[in-house]
Amino acid sequence: MDLLKIFAVLYLIKRYCEETGKSELKGKTSLHKLLFLSKIEGGVEESIPYFEFRPYYYGPYSFELEDIIDIMLFYDLIVKEKTDYGYIYKLTDDGHKVVKKLEKHLNLENEYYVKVIKKAIDMTIKRYKNFSIKDIMDYVYEKYPDFASEYYDCD
Question: Which of 38, 39, 57, 105, CA to CA, is 20 to 30 A from 5?
């Protein structure tokens, strides 16, 4: 189990909710794109074990992230709810506790990795917190066309 990646997802959801004043992150696509942007634009070096992304139907996608989401659901760290517009993600009470414990634990072993990932996520959330899912997708498709898929129409 990759605790650093679990920390990254929990931390991203937590910081998104704090920055926006919302109780959840809307959209699986948003989750994938925000983590992608945190890696590409946030300065997460290749040497840091982070998510791998590949071109997919709606742009950069990480199959690994889907596995991490399943693990977090199994351990009741997040709630994933289906709505009319897609999925929403929320931290549970346990999720809030675990993100703090993981940060403390991981800082003992990989302080540099935690610092880089937190900085990348914080920068990404501050920059994109007011973007709609469509705005994020349009931006990613325009800025990173190698991750674009023929299945998405930006109009």
Answer: 57
119 beta partners: none
Closest CA to 141 of 132, 153, 129: 153
Q: State the residue range of the domain holding 21.
A: 3-145
- Give the count of beta carbons closer than 10 Å to the beta carbon of residue 144: 18
Q: What is the DSSP letter of 150?
A: T
Place of tokens 């990932």: 117
Question: Does some domain include residue 72?
Answer: yes
Tens digits of residue pLDDT in 35-92: 999 999 998 988 888 999 999 887 899 999 999 999 999 999 999 999 988 899 999 9
Two structure tokens written together for 124: 């990404």
Total of domains in the chain: 1
35 lies in some domain: yes
Can you read off the two tokens belonging to residue 112? 């540099």
* Cα 125 from Cα 105, distance rounded (Å): 24
Residue 77 near residue 95 (C-beta atoms within 8 A):
yes
Q: Beta strands of the chain (E only): which ranges? A: 25-26, 78-83, 86-91
pTM of the entire predicted model: 0.92
